[in-house]
Amino acid sequence: MLETSARLLKLLSLLQTRRDWPGPELAARLGVSGRTVRRDVERLRELGYRVDALQSMTVPLTGGAPAVQAGTLSAIAAACRGHESLRFGYESGDGTVSERLVEPYRLVASGRRWYLVAFDPGRADWRVFRVDRLRLRTPNGPRFTPREPPAADLAAYASRKISSAPYRYRCVVTVRAPAEAVVARMPPSVAAVEPLDAGSCLLESGANSLDELAFWLVSLGMPFEVREPPELAAHLRALAGRLAEAAGGVSAPGIVGGGPYHDAPHRRDGPCSTR
Question: Do 86 and 136 contact (CB within 8 A), yes or no?
Answer without folding.
Answer: yes
